[in-house]
Amino acid sequence: MKIYQFSQEVGKKISHYNSNFIMSRITQTEKVTRIGCMYLEGNGIIGYHQATVPQLLLILSGEGTVRGEQEEYVKVKPGDAVFWEKDEWHETKTEQGLTAIVIESEELNPSMFMPIYD
């Protein structure tokens, strides 16, 4: 399990075409990619299971904890991106609720665009 950041603080200011915004790039793929949004209510859980393909979980709101194959949970918050390799066991839990985008693809490489969390 690796945790990256896509928060505003790590984004790049865009000014082309008279624009004024910050863009945090996340990933790029050429193969089939599935993207979904997960809504976990209070005491919600994405149970402990193996990733069938590499997965990237982007925390949009709320907070929770995640773990990989180790039993140690790591706190996540908006702007964090959690990456699990194919076949890696993992789990996500929240007490207060959490909303996240999940990206699944055979060719995810989040380190291409996002800094790893310190």
Q: Can you put this structure into words, describing what you see?
A:
This protein has 118 residues and is mostly beta strands. It has a single domain, classed as Jelly Rolls (Sandwich). The chain is built from no helices and 11 strands. A hairpin with a 6-residue loop joins strand 2 and strand 3 (21-23). It is globular, with a radius of gyration of 15 Å. The two termini are 14 Å apart. This is Cupin. Pfam families: Cupin_2 (PF07883). Residues 46-95 form the Cupin type-2 domain.
Topology of helices and strands:
Elements: E1 2-5, E2 12-14, E3 21-23, E4 33-40, E5 45-50, E6 55-62, E7 64-67, E8 74-76, E9 80-84, E10 89-93, E11 98-105
Antiparallel strand pairs: 1-9, 2-3, 4-11, 5-10, 6-9, 6-11, 7-8, 7-10
Number of helices: 0
- Beta strand %: over 45%
Work out the oligomeric state of the chains in this entry: single chain
- Low-pLDDT windows of residues: none
* Gross geometry: globular
Strand order of the largest sheet: 1-9-6-11-4
Count of individual beta strands: 11
Taking the sheet with the most strands, its summary is:
5 strands, antiparallel
Can you tag this structure with a few keywords?
single chain, 118 residues, mainly beta, Jelly Rolls, 5-stranded antiparallel sheet, 4-stranded antiparallel sheet, 0% helix, 48% strand, globular
Short description:
This protein is mostly beta strands and 118 residues long. The chain is built from no helices and 11 strands. Strands 1-9-6-11-4 form a 5-stranded antiparallel beta sheet, with no helix packed on it.
